[in-house]
Amino acid sequence: MGVTEDMADELATNTIKYIEASGDEDIIADLVKVLGATSQTAEEAFLTSIRVRRANQKAKALLVERVKAFKAKQDTTGGTPES
Description:
By secondary structure, the chain is mainly alpha-helical. The chain has one domain (3-76). 84% of the residues lie in helices and 0% in strands. It contains 3 helices and no strands. The chain has helices at residues 3-22, 26-38, 40-76. Helix 1 (3-22) crosses helix 3 (40-76) and helix 2 packs antiparallel against helix 3. The longest helix is centred in the last third of the chain and has 37 residues, at 40-76. The N and C termini lie far apart (46 Å). The model has no long low-confidence stretch (mean pLDDT 94).
């Protein structure tokens, strides 16, 4: 990645950690205002990173859920896949 994307991704990572700890979703809008006032490119990179990271978190959670369900089903059927 370039410097803009690297910096935006680091900010997005820290922002997501803050949101998970505090529940303060408004921080995204506040940061977008600051970034947009100084650099539209940085604003767009930040928002992209936030979206990509959150989408990835949701996808990973869905995968974990499906794997657990699959394993539970295998455990109840004696480990044999159904035809």
